[in-house]
Amino acid sequence: MIDLGWLRGFHVIGLILWMGGLFALTSHLGTSADMDPSDRTDAMEGFERKTYYFSALPGLILSLVTGLWMMFQNGFAGYLNVDGTWGATFHAKLTLIVVLIGIDQFVHFKMRRFHGSGEGSRGLFMALHGTIGLMFIVIPILVQTKLLA
Fold this sequence. Notes:
The chain is an all-alpha fold. It has one domain (4-145). Helix content is 81%, strand content 0%. It has five helices and no strands. It has helices at residues 4-34, 42-74, 77-80, 89-117, 122-145. Helix 1 packs antiparallel against helix 2.
């Protein structure tokens, strides 16, 4: 068994990579979408791809693997039982994580479509940016306070 402190540490590192990558990507895509198509460069597209594939995606995988590992190591009963230590808080967190994974995949889809055909608007990318930020605030508050326990 791996020490829980190490798992939490790598979990937080994964979250920072994932959220930081998505923040940078949505901000950059919003800026790119606002530009004239003739002003966009291959370097900008390369930066956006690298941000997703070398920051956001590895962060998602690392945080997901370490989060599941902690659940397996501690046993599911304490997490999934509504009358347990976490109460409904863990269910709310899991729901928000699933939504965040969906947003991640939607951003990836929109990035690829934007690079392929130029479809995308600054408003959409900034709305995604704000939604990711809201999740990044709500999820840690839920976890730290166990608000719904």
